[in-house]
């Protein structure tokens, strides 16, 4: 087993609480590392586990878990946990895992999951939709689709996600979350292969040749999987196509570094919008 066997990795740093009397990672923690990586894997294939598996009509239960230890991790090691679905059967699937420090394989593992009815915990066939998602992801294909359109066209796919992120998570008053600008904006929604809206945003034109990105929202379990980057890059392309000279946005201060990495520059003073600190940022297009 080597790093190149995996498309997906979850990174973590070994903590003090995970070290045993031998000053190495206690053997049982490696299974927790792998389980954490599996959870992140579902996000990477754009499936918010709880809602997605409700749609699929079942849950996954571990049937068997095996680990083989090759070397030890120690405190402060930066580990990469490779994870892949190597086989999809009728009602079960096999995940292979490799825990690496750099290129060195420390622990290899295998998890066998059974898809089952959560009420009776009896196995049932894996839905074709889930089988398809796993197979195309491991084959290197995209598991999402980006759509754009008017608010009338996109509302059914975007509104619930915006409510989840802004109203429920960030406690923005519901009456402030939806506004009259929605009808003037071009909206984008990223859909997973189950048709769920997992990321959304809107593009306005407040002035001639000026584009403004807003209402950026990504499903919480899927953050860190480049969906936000996909939205912003799509909006930048759309702004260029219509001849805009710059793109502005009001970034939540917690997301400032995300936009900086995409070329935006902050200016002005921090201000509050709906009780949340924001900073204006700009990207010049020419």
Topology:
Blueprint: E1 8-13, H1 29-44, H2 49-56, E2 59-69, E3 78-88, E4 92-101, E5 104-116, H3 128-138, E6 144-149, H4 151-169, H5 174-177, E7 186-192, E8 197-207, E9 210-218, H6 227-241, E10 246-252, H7 256-260, E11 265-273, E12 276-284
Parallel strand pairs: 9-10
Antiparallel strand pairs: 1-3, 2-5, 3-4, 4-5, 6-7, 7-8, 8-9, 10-12, 11-12
General description of the model:
This protein has 286 residues and is of the alpha+beta class. The radius of gyration is 22 Å and the shape is globular. The mean pLDDT is 95.
Distance between the termini: 47 Å
Average pLDDT rating: 95
Q: Tally the helices: what do you get? A: 7
Biggest β-sheet strands, sense, barrel: 7 strands, mixed
CATH superfamily of the largest domain: Gcn5-related N-acetyltransferase (GNAT)
Low-pLDDT segments: none
Number of domain modules? 2
What is the level 1 CATH name of the largest domain? Answer: Alpha Beta
- What CATH calls the topology of the largest domain is Aminopeptidase
So, CATH architecture of the largest domain?
3-Layer(aba) Sandwich
Dominant shape: globular
- Tell me the series of helices and strands, N- to C-terminal: EHHEEEEHEHHEEEHEHEE
Strand order of the largest sheet: 6-7-8-9-10-12-11
């Amino acid at each position: 087993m080597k790093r190149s066997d995996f498309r997906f990795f979850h990174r973590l740093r070994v903590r003090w609480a995970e070290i045993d009397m031998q000053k190495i990672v206690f053997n049982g923690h490696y299974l927790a590392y792998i389980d954490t990586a599996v959870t992140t894997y579902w996000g990477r294939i754009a499936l918010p586990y709880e809602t997605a598996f409700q749609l699929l009509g079942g849950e996954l239960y571990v049937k068997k878990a095996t680990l083989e230890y090759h070397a030890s991790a120690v405190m402060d090691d930066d580990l990469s946990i490779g994870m892949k679905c190597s086989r999809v059967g009728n009602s079960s699937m096999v995940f292979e895992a490799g825990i690496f420090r750099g290129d060195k394989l420390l622990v290899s593992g295998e998890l066998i999951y059974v898809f089952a009815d959560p009420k009776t915990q009896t196995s049932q066939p894996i839905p074709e939709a889930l089988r398809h998602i796993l197979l195309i992801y491991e084959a290197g294909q995209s598991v999402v689709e980006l759509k754009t359109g008017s608010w009338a066209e996109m509302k059914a796919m975007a509104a619930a996600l915006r409510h989840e992120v802004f109203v429920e998570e960030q406690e923005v008053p519901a009456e402030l979350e939806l506004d009259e600008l929605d009808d003037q904006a071009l909206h984008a929604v990223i859909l997973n292969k189950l048709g769920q809206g997992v990321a959304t945003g809107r593009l306005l034109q407040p002035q001639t040749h000026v584009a403004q990105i807003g209402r950026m929202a990504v499903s919480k379990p899927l953050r860190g999987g480049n969906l936000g980057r996909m939205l912003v890059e799509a909006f930048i392309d759309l702004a260029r196509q219509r001849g805009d000279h710059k793109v502005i946005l009001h970034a939540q201060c917690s997301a400032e570094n995300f936009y900086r990495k995409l070329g935006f520059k902050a200016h002005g003073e921090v201000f509050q919008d709906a009780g949340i600190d924001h900073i204006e940022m700009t990207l010049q297009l020419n």
